[in-house]
Amino acid sequence: MQLVLKSVLTKNLYQAEQFDALYKQYWKEVEKATDAKIKEAPPEQKDKKPTNSNKPSLLSIKNWLYGKKNEELTEIATYSPNEVLTKKDFAHFTPEELQEVNKIVHLLARNLAIQASRRKQKTAKMRQLDIRNTLYRNRQYGGEILKLAYTTPKLEKFRLVLICDVSKSMDLYSRFLIQFMYAFQAAFHRIETFVFSTSLHKITAHLQRQHINQTLQKLADNVPNWSGGTQIGLSLKTFFENDYRLLDKKTTVIILSDGWDTGETTDLEESMKSIHKKARKLIWLNPLAGNPNYAPTTEGMKAAMPYIDAFASVHNIESLRNLWKIL
Fold first, then answer.
1. Of the four, 18, 178, 249, 298, which is 20 to 30 A from 134 by CA?
2. Three-state secondary structure call for residue 164
3. Can you tell me whether residue 100 is helix, strand or coil?
4. List of domains in the chain
5. Are 193 and 202 in contact (CB under 8 A)?
6. What is the pTM assigned to this prediction?
7. Distance CA 40, CA 201 (A)
8. For residues 125 and 122, what is the distance between their CA atoms, to the nearest angstrom?
9. Orientation of helix 71-78 relative to helix 317-326, angle to 10°
């Protein structure tokens, strides 16, 4: 098995020389993981600090085999400027701490912007072995496999529509909301951003400024009713009537709101149904959902829930780590 994998996976002399050590280390790591499930490690092994070693880790093997495609997802899942902040609610973050959160939100947006599709394309790099094209390329050699062909998933660029609640009930999260919108705008090339309280406003152009302080000033000058009442249904109805052309099967819609609606739930339910039907995915992020006792019992959330593809909390760094799995 080792020789078969070595002949198939290695592309040059350097990789061939590294393969044997990687192969042995891989199975050692697997054995360790299996043993850990059966019995606990001795105390001296638990406290033993890892030493610098030239032996490759299991993660390095996976990165080498898969072209390091999991690097960014790993960073999203593990990054935190301070582990103390992991479960701290964004409502209590200082502006400096929110700047650190900007990094993980930016990575989240960038991974959502470009995703692998089921369709394949040819590649010169060593990815997934293409059996059909490999056999075709070697037909002139009488059945001997001398040339390998590889494929990789095609990358599809998706459009994102971000609709954020900036009403009075969301005031505690206003600073995080701005960071969230700003980071997504910077990462996505195909994005439209809207905010609403009692009415809907498109702010895509304002978020294209390079400095966030300029953006904040522009929003303050151009968005009326910031921290006002909440009419989610009317705002979503306005969005669908005026901007339904943005919606197709390559468009993900993210609504960031606590679900408190002072308007008619009929508008909310009909608008959610229409958006869900046309969009690729409809995601609702609610900062209140981080409370263990939370239940979507408000009239607005009960009307919206049947048309939501993914419902999640977004109130601290830990919730952001879980969010990339959903998106």
1. 18
2. strand
3. helix
4. 1-41+55-65 (no CATH), 117-156 (no CATH), 157-326 (3.40.50.410)
5. yes
6. 0.62
7. 57
8. 9
9. 150
CA atoms of 67 and 31, how far apart (whole Å): 24
Q: Crossing angle, helix 71-78 and helix 95-113, to 10 degrees? A: 150
Distance CA 63, CA 69 (A): 7
pLDDT tens track for 86-131: 556 566 666 666 666 777 777 777 666 666 556 677 777 766 788 8
- How many other CB atoms are there within 10 angstroms of residue 26's CB atom? 17
Alpha-carbon Rg for the chain, nearest whole angstrom, is: 25
Residue 245: how many other CB atoms lie within 10 Å: 7
Task: Answer whether 113's CB lies under 8 Å from 160's CB.
Answer: yes
The larger pLDDT score, comparing residue 282 to residue 322, is at 282
- Condensed to tens digits (0 to 9), the pLDDT of residues 167-222 reads 888 877 777 777 778 777 777 778 899 999 888 999 888 887 666 667 767 776 77
| DSSP state at residue 198 | S
Cα gap 110→266, rounded to integer Å: 35
Cα–Cα distance, 171 to 118 (Å, whole number): 41
Q: Is 88 exposed, middle or buried (0-12, 13-18, 19+ CB in 10 A)?
A: middle
Max Cα distance, the chain (Å) = 76
Non-local CB neighbours of 270 within 8 Å, separated by 6+ positions: 237
Report how far residue 188's alpha carbon sits from residue 148's, in angstroms, rounded to the nearest whole number: 35
